[in-house]
Sequence to fold (230 residues):
Amino acid sequence: MIVPCYNEQDTVSELLARVLASRWVAEVIVVDDGSTDRTLELVRSLHDPRLRVVAQGVNRGKGAALRRGFAEARSEFVVVQDADLEYDPGEYGDLLGPLLGGHADVVYGSRFLSGRPHRVLYFWHSLGNRALTLLSNAFTDLNLTDMETCYKAMRREVLDSLVIEEDRFGFEPEITAKLARGGWRIFEVGISYRGRTYAEGKKIGWKDGLRACYCIVRYSTLGECLLRRG
Fold:
């Protein structure tokens, strides 16, 4: 389990309590990405043999935090878990099911593929997520419903085959493109989602959407061919 976090003092303690309570969790690597609040202090106050804490020192972005966490991970399966309580650790069994059954190498938890509870929030965010997923699918020839989801679970050997370059939220389209290029077996499962507002700490913005478009083109096979022609 990799938990990147930046200024999540209001949620990180509850989130980690729920993560560590899961029977599916063998290790938890928290990467504090230069938090300026009490996040790192709160994480370090927890004592569990499965928990390891890595402090980045300065804020480098979610992709950079995940890159560090992936390098530290030792478990057979690795799951990405944000520290903001938007995603439910109680659903790890659903995420890991296709991996444990030997059917998948990677599993995405889709917010748009289930009848589970969803907090009703921003129309334009939802539209933007779907548009980016559509664009990503066009360049990768996948048929995902939620490319931008936080919940991505994968086998250790899949991670070992990847080199993550993006430091911020461009991680999502980058890893999707590289998974497609690698020919890995990707499954989706439906998950619940309790989104939060900007007042509650949401960090992604429109500039990240533009970067995502660039990453979709930059890292996909089709995009690489088009860039070479240009």
The chain has one domain: 2-229. Strands lie at 2-5, 28-32, 51-55, 77-79, 106-110, 152-155, 186-190. The domain at 2-229 is CATH 3.90.550.10 (Spore Coat Polysaccharide Biosynthesis Protein SpsA; Chain A).
